[in-house]
Amino acid sequence: MDKVRIIEVKQNVLANNDRKAEELREELKAGKTFLLNLMSSPGAGKTTLLGKVVDRLKGELRIGVMEADIDGDVDALAMAKHGVKSIQLHTGGMCHLDASMTKQGLSELGTDDVDLAILENVGNLVCPAEFDTGAGKNLMILSVPEGHDKPLKYPLIFTVCDALVINKIDVLPYFDFDMEKVKEYALMRNPKLKIFPLCAKTGEGVDALCDWLKEQVAAWNA
C-alpha cells in the first residue's frame, strides 16, 4: 500500500501568516503608524476601555480604531461617538484576525493621518493569540469576574502579549480574585509582561496605560 501523504496545514498557514505579519509591520514602521492589537474574552471591557483611552489621547495622537466581530456594528458606532475614525470588520464567522485581514482593514481605515491604530480583535482567549496580526504590540484584558487562574488555563495569550490590563478592579470585594496570584501566574508565562490594574468604567488607573501607549508610539517612530 502506498504511503499516505501528511500535510501540516496549520504549521504552513501560520508560517505564511507570520511572513505577511512581518511585512505589514515593516510597512507600518515606514509609514509611522503604530498598530496595537487588543485581545480579551467577550465582556472583559475592551470597548469601554478604548473609549476612555481615546478620550485621553485624541488631543495628543491621531487615532483610528478597527472593531472586529463576527457580525454587527455596535462597537464601531460606539467608538465613532468618541470622535475618532472607526470601522467595523466582519470576520465571516472566523474567531480571529490574521495579518492579511488586518492589512485589508488598515487599507479601509486609512493610515496616512493615523499615529495610533487600534485593532479590537474578536472576543476570544484562544484563536486570536495564535495569529500574528502585524501589530507593534499586543495588549490583553483580563477582567476580575473571569478569575485569577486564567494564565494557567490559557497560557499562549499571556505569552504573546506585551501588556496585561486587569480590568474591573472596582468589583474586587465581590469576587474571589487574588491580585497577587494573577500577577504571579501571568509573569510566570511572560516575565516581561507589563501589568496595569484599572477600572475602565470609572477611569481609575487608565492614565498609566495611556502613558505606556504614548511611550510605545514614540519608540516606534524614533
Provide a quick synopsis of the model:
The protein has 222 residues and is α/β, with parallel strands linked by helices.
Description of the molecule:
With 222 residues, this protein is of the alpha/beta class. It has helices at 9-30, 46-57, 74-80, 99-109, 127-130, 150-153, 155-160, 179-189, 206-221, and strands at residues 34-40, 63-69, 85-90, 116-120, 137-143, 163-167, 194-197. It has a 7-stranded parallel sheet, with helices on both faces. The radius of gyration is 18 Å and the shape is globular. The mean pLDDT is 92.
Question: Which properties best describe this structure?
Answer:
alpha/beta, 9 helices, 42% helix, 222 residues, seven-stranded parallel sheet
User: How would you write the strand order of the largest sheet?
Assistant: 3-2-4-1-5-6-7
Mean pLDDT: 92
Percent range for β-strand residues: 15-25%
Number of strands: 7
Radius of gyration (Å): 18 Å
N→C terminal distance: 61 Å
Order of helices and strands: HEHEHEHEHEHHEHEH
Classify the helix fraction into a percent range: 40-55%
Q: Report on the biggest sheet.
A: 7 strands, parallel
